[in-house]
Amino acid sequence: MPSTLLDLRSQLLFYKKYHHEQVNVAIHSVFVPTILFSSASMLHRVVLYKDYTLTSLLTTCYASFYLLLNLPVGLLATGLLILMNVAIDSHWVPLTFNQELILFTIGWVCQFIGHGVFEKRRPALLDNLVQSLVLAPYFILFELLFRLGFMPGLKQQLEADVRDS
């Protein structure tokens, strides 16, 4: 199945091929949000214009892409991204830059361990950095929705696509 930019199934399949082993998926389920939050917190310090930060810009880009891929899940993801921005802006989780950097580093180390020890496959970011970084949070959200019983047909299609590839 050829990958197209706005085809949800091909986008999720790209990431699923690198994240099929359940322990690795569990590691990513914890540390992708950790990396997202810590990096967004660090990038929030970069003000582009007035109160508009680099995190605001990236959130807008991520949300737009997620909405184009799948409107209902994109709306959920957008809401979560907005909530993250509000939490960072309101200092609900008051972290220093060094604490954010430590969380960011721990997140990446754990993910690489997940790939090396459990998945036994190099990370997707080595094949497509931008696609991996943008898709990772969305993929984790879909994994949660699949576990909750949503979109069983899509989950089955992705599992079959991984087996067939």
From TrEMBL:
<keyword id="KW-0472">Membrane</keyword>
<feature type="transmembrane region" description="Helical">
    <location>
        <begin position="63"/>
        <end position="88"/>
    </location>
</feature>
<dbReference type="GO" id="GO:0016020">
    <property type="term" value="C:membrane"/>
</dbReference>
<dbReference type="GO" id="GO:0046521">
    <property type="term" value="P:sphingoid catabolic process"/>
</dbReference>
<feature type="transmembrane region" description="Helical">
    <location>
        <begin position="23"/>
        <end position="43"/>
    </location>
</feature>
<protein>
    <recommendedName>
        <fullName>DUF962 domain protein</fullName>
    </recommendedName>
</protein>
<keyword id="KW-1133">Transmembrane helix</keyword>
<dbReference type="Pfam" id="PF06127">
    <property type="entry name" value="Mpo1-like"/>
</dbReference>
<feature type="transmembrane region" description="Helical">
    <location>
        <begin position="130"/>
        <end position="150"/>
    </location>
</feature>
<dbReference type="GO" id="GO:0001561">
    <property type="term" value="P:fatty acid alpha-oxidation"/>
</dbReference>
<keyword id="KW-0812">Transmembrane</keyword>
<dbReference type="InterPro" id="IPR009305">
    <property type="entry name" value="Mpo1-like"/>
</dbReference>
<feature type="transmembrane region" description="Helical">
    <location>
        <begin position="100"/>
        <end position="118"/>
    </location>
</feature>
<dbReference type="GO" id="GO:0005783">
    <property type="term" value="C:endoplasmic reticulum"/>
</dbReference>
<dbReference type="GO" id="GO:0102672">
    <property type="term" value="F:fatty acid alpha-dioxygenase activity"/>
</dbReference>
